[in-house]
Amino acid sequence: MSPPRMDNVYTVVGAVVKGFVDSLRGALIIFTLDESINEQKRSPARHDIASLRRVSENPLVKSDRQQPKKEKKILKRTLQCCGLNGGIFWLSILLFEWGLLPLVNYLILTILGQKTNIGQTVSSIVESSLSFVFSTMWVLPLLLLSKVVNSLWFQDIADSVYRHSRGRPTVLSSVGKLIADAMFSVLVQFFFLIQTMLISYFPVAPLGYIFYLVHTCLLFSLYSFEYKMYNMGWELHKRLNFIEANWPYFIGFGLPLSVLTSLTSSYIISGCIFSILFPFFIISANEAEPLVNLSSSHLRLFSPVIALSNALFHQTVRPLVEPKGKRTR
């Protein structure tokens, strides 16, 4: 990638700032979005002239169209994400690590003596055993459950917001394309996560973190905008090309979530923070209008993982999902 021309620096910085501001919009409109959706649902009933006329002529006659029931789906789903990931998952980890383990350690050392080798040994064994049991019996099952439940809630939020602002989603032309696109997207995102972790070990300390931050910004922007782009009927290659071509805006958009999730070294806690905040970014992405064509260069960070995914996908997955005689590549 060639660096942006100097006369475009202010434009690029402006796009980064615009993306950053747009990413915060979901937190501002989420409390009024459900009411706006309910108002949109009520509007056809208000304009049913024939029904209103019959009711006005005879008050005993009820309208044949019922008012839609008020719903708070988006806010409800967001609060559920906060409750599951913050109130149950994250809180349970904090209580275990900051409450139960110190208490058990204190009791053991009090009984056996704080300065004895036996007390230190028993305390270490009990702490390791409790941590293992807690991780296998609680953290791992809850982590898997939260991944499934979160994905359903995220999709529900994204579909509700999209229908409200843009209408009915556009689906891909065939089931085979839909399956292939979904599986290829998983491969690309998985390999990009590996690429992100590897780039974080860049030997020059400040550059390593900056490269890592840029990768996560683009990845979180892809996560946020993928629901909207998918509902628009965009295939994966178009989604990735759009993000790479307009990288200044998407670096700014993904920056808040990237910084907040990098504040902890724990993958589990970082995942909790992501799951709590992600619904707001889904809403922000749906409402955003990205600034495009501001840079003459593409930030082709996805190209290595696309090439790797293509090689693996064509050899293993594609023959299973594509009928014989229908291959175009």
From TrEMBL:
Membrane topology (UniProt): Multi-pass membrane protein
One Pfam family cited in the UniProt record for this chain: EI24
Locations listed in the record: Membrane
Keywords for the protein's UniProt record, in alphabetical order: Membrane, Transmembrane, Transmembrane helix
Ranges that cross the membrane: 87-112, 132-154, 175-203, 209-227, 248-281
Family: Belongs to the EI24 family.
Name of the featured protein: P53 induced protein
Natural source organism: Nesidiocoris tenuis
